[in-house]
Task: structure prediction
Amino acid sequence: MPMRSTFVLMSLLLLLLLHIFRLLAEGGGNSLSYSFYDETCPQVERLVREGLSPVFLADPTSPAALLRLMFHDCQVQGCDASILLDSQGDNVTSEMTSDKNFGIRKRDAIGMIKSVVETECPGQVSCADLLVLAAREAVCVTGGPRIRVPLGRRDALTASYKLADALLPSAATGVDAMLGIFTDKGMNAEEAVALLGAHTIGISHCININMNREDQPEEKIGLRSQFQKFLKLSCRKTGSLAKTTFLINDLTNLVFDNQYYRDIVDGRGLLRVDAEISKDPRTAPIVAEFARDQNYFFEVFTTAFIKLASSGVLTGDQGRVVRSCNRID
Result:
């Protein structure tokens, strides 16, 4: 082969390799990408933001609900919008029938956003991506960091309430189990504790608070004695009444800030894991640092949020982009 032809061939191969590397770096193939919708629906983030504005104005508690919705979705089959599916035949049994999803709200808000996006960009944007973008907006609109998230998720073709029962953490979850859950998603202890900071907005129902820990020693569970008495008085109802009574997560429960950590350092953690991370030697220094430095908490939360939102996702030829978020077409 003439030298010139060999040179041309090698140049073409090099260009091909560079193109492949660029695609991998930018999320090509089966990966997520920060530019995934640049050609097919460049306005998607604006549509989500504008669509959620009236939802946030009408219901100030909706950001907390949307953030929790994403967390519960990502914990079961990865971030694939399976939590939005209604029961549909043997292959889809709604995750919402699991007791672990008690109190989950605002699934309809994602369906509404999907309808808006479908009008502008039919068949392009997955419900899984919309759910992550909605949670991102929930953090930002309440005062938290604006998180830039990679996109390109596909929607689930299955859902199982049995998986939700098995994989969603219970109110009895302690530090060991919490760290294990997030370690499996590639996070370190600092990122795991940062994700718990999502509890800084929203409420906790008494059914999840009253875990027979009110009379245990303060040094063991990280609860001040006066706060233990407060919990016992506020959450003394049982059965169905325990599902209707609740406490705000912290004094600024509509604002995404580091008040959650300041409260638990002071012995006012509502859930078992909230209180125990202030005492466990693996997590207590992290809690103290986040309580001291809100900006640092925001930095770590951003990294952890992206890792959670990217865990176990369907991409490429996996799953599909459904037309309606509550059913498989």
Observations:
- Residues 3-26 form the longest helix (24 residues).
- The beta strands are 203-205, 246-248.
